[in-house]
Amino acid sequence: MSDGIHFLGIRHHGPGSAKNVKAYLEELEPDMILLEGPPEAEPLLPGVLHEQMKPPVALLAYQPDEPKRAVFYPFAGFSPEWQAMCYAVKRGIPLRFFDLPLVHHLALWKEREEQAELQKASEEAHDTEEEGMPSAPGNQPEAEASPVPPEPVHVDPFAALAKAAGYDDPELWWEMNFENRRNNEEIFLAVREAVTALREAYPAIDRETSLREAWMRKMIRAAQKEGCQRIAVICGAWHVPGLEKMPARKEDNELLKGLPKVKVECTWIPWTYDRLSYRSGYGAGIISPGWYDHVWDYPDDDGTRWMSKVAALFRARGMDISVAHVIETVRLAQVTAALRGLSRPSLEEYNDAVTTVMGFGDPVVLQIIREALVISDRMGAVPGDVPKVPLLVDVEKLLKRLRLPLTTGIKEYNLDLRKPNDLERSIVFHRLNLLGIRLARPLGSDGKGTFKESWSVYYEPEQTLSIIEKAVWGNTLAEAVVAYNVRQAEDIPSISALVDLLQQVIPADLPGLVEQMTRRLDALAASTTDVLEMMKAIPGLVTVVRYGSVRNLDYAKVNDMLYTMMARVLAGGVLACANIDEDAAADLMEKFIAVDYAVATANQPELISMWTELVRKVRESRGTHPLLSGYATRLLRDKNILGHEETAQTLQYYTSRGNAASETAFWFEGFLKSSGTILLLDEQLWELVNGWLASLDDGTFLELLPILRRTFSEYSVPERRKLGEKAKGTSGVKRLHAGSEAFNAEDARKVIPLIWQLVGIK
Amino acid sequence: MGLLLRQHAEQQFEEELHELKKNETNKVPENWQLSPQSVVTYLMGGTLKNGFQISPKYIGNRRLIEIAVATLVTDRALLLYGLPGTAKSWVSEHLAAAISGDSTLIVQGTAGTGEEAIRYGWNYAKLLAEGPSEGALVQTPVMRAMRDGKLARIEELTRVGSDVQDTLITILSEKTLPVPELDKEIQAIRGFNVIATANNRDKGVNELSSALKRRFNTVILPLPDTIEEEIDIVRRRVEGFSTVMDIPAEKPALEEIRRVVTIFRELRGGATEDGKTKLKTPSGTLSTAEAISVVNNGLAMSGYFGDGRLNAVDLVSGIIGAVVKDPVQDRVVWQEYLETVVKGRDGWKDIYRASREML
Fold this sequence. Notes:
The complex is a heterodimer. Chain A is α/β, with parallel strands linked by helices. In chain A, about 55% of the residues lie in helices and about 10% in strands. In chain A, the strands form 3 sheets. Chain A has a 4-stranded parallel sheet with strand order 1-7-2-5, sandwiched between helices. Chain B folds into 2 domains: about 70-220, 3-Layer(aba) Sandwich (Rossmann fold); about 225-360. In chain B, strand 8 (about 175-180) and strand 9 (about 185) form a beta hairpin. In chain B, helix 12 (about 225-245) crosses helix 14 and helix 14 runs antiparallel to helix 15. Chain B starts with 8 loop residues before the first helix and ends with a helix. The interface of A and B includes residues 356, 357 and 361 of A.
C-alpha cells in the first residue's frame, strides 16, 4: 500500500471485520485513523471509553431547526468502527471522521426532497421519502435515516460476486469468506481486489457517492499534507477503489464547491439489538445480532458454548435437554458443516442441528432461540453527560426518579393512582402521549373513575428523536406539553374534538393548560351555532368533571363551562329538533340518549333541571320530529314529570287518524326506544300501551299493525316472547295492580331471619 | 434380473453408484461405499466431474438430506418422520443403498413384531437337537448389519410395541448385542447404524420412550411445498414405473398428472388452490405416493384395457379409490368437490362425467 495509506475495507457490523480491524491497527500502530462517519460527531469521540457507555449505541445527528431530518449511525461492540474508535481513544491516536460532513449531506438530502416534491407535484407520482434517503443504491447504507421509512430495495453488488462463487445468499458468502476466517493475512487486500473488480463491473455511481468519495479523498490529502506516516483508512469496502485512485486535487475541489449547508447537532443515544437486526427494516441490518455478539466475545468457540447457552435456554422453558444432547448437537453441526464444505459451522448449521437433535425434527423450537439468543435483544447505555437537548434531559431525569428504566421488550405497568409514585408515573405517561411520544401506551379501556391504570411501555430509539423534535416547545416536559397543546388547541375547529383533547389533558395534571383550553372552548362555543356539536361535547365535559374529582383536582372552570354549554343547548335545542329529516332525527336521538345519561351521572340538580326543561320544550314544540317527540315524552314520563293521564293523552294524540302513518311509527319508535324489558316490568307503562292497544277498533288496529311490528321488531327475541306471553295472559283485560293481594305476611316473616343472617345481624 | 418385479435401489441405480465411486475425491468413512458428499449428490442428483448425470431420488429440501447424512456420520441413529407417503422409506432405502451398498437389511415394524425380529431368534429344531449354539441362532437383519458394518432399516418403528422398541437402546448406545444364552455378544463394527421410519398418523400409538428418542436424530420429511414440486415427483416416479412395469401406454401426459395432483392437494388442504372455495377434507391422507399410484394405475388401465393413452376415465377410478376411504363420509366429500369445483372448471368436464358415471 503506497504512501503509507492503508485501506481497510469493512462491512458494517461484522465481528470478523471488527477483529481484523483491531488486529490490523494494533500491528500497524497508525499515526492517523480516518474513519467513515460524520465529522460533526468528532467531539463525541471520547465518550466511547466512558464507563457508562455500553454498546449498542447510535450516533444521532439531526438538524436542530428541523429535528425530523436526522440520521442514526448504530454501533455494536462487534462493529469494526466501534473497535477503531476505542483503539484510537485508548491510544490517543488522532481519529477523524472523514465522510462528507452532515451539514452538507443533510442539506443535499433536503434539496433532493424538495426537488422530488416538485416532481411529485407535476407527476402526481410516488414516494419522495425513499428517494430522499441518504443511502445510495449500490452502497451499503450504514446510516439509518429516520423516521424509519422502509429502506429502498436495491441491487447488492456483492450478491453478484456471491453468485459467481456459487452462493445464493450473499450474506453467507461474505460470512464464509471474510467474517468466519481464523486466518486473516491479507484479508483487506482480498477485499480490495474483489471490490475493485466489482466497481469495474458497476461503474455507475450516483452524485452523492461521488461527492462523498471526493470529500474522503480531500481528507486523505489533508492528512498526508500534515505529514502523517501511517494512515489507516477505514471505510465501507465499496469505497476502497474510489479512494485509491487519486484524481487531480482540483477536480475534487471543483466537485465540492458550493455545497448547500444546514446546521447539524450530534449526540449519542442508546440503541437496541432488535433495531440492528435486519427484520426491523434497517438496511445494513444483520440477521442475528446475538450470534455476532457471541462470535465476537468467543471467537474460538467450537459451538460448545453456544449450544450450552441454547440448552440452558431450553431447560429454563421446561424442556429436558441433557448434556448428551449438547454433545450430539455440536457433533452434528460440525459434521454438517464439513459436508457442506465449510471450515466451521455457521449459525445455520447450529440451527439445523438443534432442530434435529433437540427439537426432534420440529423447527418450532427455533422460535424460542430466535428471540432470546439470535436477536438477543438488549439495550445499550450512554453516559449522562453527553450533550443533549434540555427536554430530553428532563424526561430522562423524570423517568429515573420514577424508577421507569428503559429496557428492551414490552413492559407492563399496573398503576394504583392512590399511591403518589404511581400517580406521578401516570401523569408522566399522559404528558408524553400528549407530546406525541408513544413511549407508554394505555392498555384496554382505561376505566376512568377507577384507581387503576394499565400501561405498556416500549422504548424505540425514534422516541428519543421525537423528544428532540419537540424540544422547541419547552425545556421541561410540563412546559413543552402546555406550549405544544395550546398551539394544537388553537388549530382545532370543532368543539367535540377539543373536548376529546381536553379529556386527554385532564389526567396529565396541567391545570394551567386546562384553563387555557376551557377559554378556547368557550370562545368556540360562543361562535358556533351548531347545537349538535355542543350536545356532543356535554358527555365529554361531564366525564372531565367527574374524573377530576376522582383525581383530587379541582376543575370548577370546566364545570362552569358545562353549565354554559348546557345553557346554549337549551337556547338552541328546540329549533334543532324541528324540520329535520329522519336521519338527522335518529342522529339527534343518539345525542339525547348520551346527554341524558351524562346528566344523570353528573347528578347536579341544577344541570338536571336545565336538561329537563329542554326535554319538555322539545316535547311541546309542534314542529319537533315525531321520533324526538316520542322519546321526549318517554323521558319525561320516566322522570315522573309527566303524569299517567297526560302520557296517555299524548299517546292517543299521536296515534289518532289525523297523523300520517309514518309519523305515528316514528313517535312510537321514539316512545318505546330500547325498552322491551322496561315494558315488561313497568306495570304502568305496560297498562298504558296495552290499554291503548286493546281499545283500538279492528280497522285502526290493522292500519297500525305494520308500524307496531316495526317498533317491536327492534327488541330481542326473548323480550318479544315474554311480551307476547304477558299480552296473552292479560288479553287486554285490565289487570289488577300487583298489590296487597300478592303479599303474604306469613310467608314474608319466614324469610326475615335469613335476611338478617345475610346482612350480618343476628 | 429382467424378471424382477421391483429392483432394489442398489440394483436399479447400480451404474450411478459405480460412477460416484469412481469419481470419489472426498474422504470416505470406514465401511461406507461413498463419501457423505457423494451420498447427498446421489439422493439430490447432480452432474459428476466426468459429465455423468445423477438423477435426483429425493425432490425437496437439500438441507434435510444433508442433515440426515450428517447424522449417520455421527453415531446417532436416524429417524425419518412424516405423513404417510412423504418418501420416508424411499429415502431410507436409497441412503442404505448409497452408504452400505445394501438396502435389504430391513425389519418391518408391526404391532406383532417381537424381540426376536430385532435381536435374534432360535431355530428350534436345531436348538433341540444341538442345544444353544451359534448354529441354532437365527440372525436378524439388525444383527447382520452389526456384524458387517452396514445400515439396518426399521420401517414403521412406532407400530412396534414399546417393550420391543426399547431393545434397540443397548444396540444404539453400546453398539453391542448380548446373547446371554451363549455367554457372548456381537459387537457392531464401524459403519453400522440404524435408519428408522415412523408415521405422523401413528403419533401416540407407541410413542418412543424418551431414552430411545434420545438416541435418534429426527428429520421430518414434509409434504411437497408447491404444486410444481409435487407434479415433478409424481412424473419422475411414474416414468420410472412404466419402464419397470413394461406398460405399453404412452408417456404420461403432464396435464393429467397436474390434474391428479391438483385434486389431491386441494382435498388435502381443504381449499382450492386459488384459496377461494373451502372444501371438506376426506379421511385418507392423499399423499404424493398415492397420487403416484393413481397415475400408475391409470397407465396400467389404459395400457391394457384402453387405447394406450392416459385419459380421465382411466384416472377417475383410481382417484375415487384414493379419496373415498370411508364409504359414507368421503363419498359426500367427493360429491361436493365434484359439484362445486370440478363441474365448473374449464376442461375438466371429462373428469366430472367419468366420476358421475362411476358413483
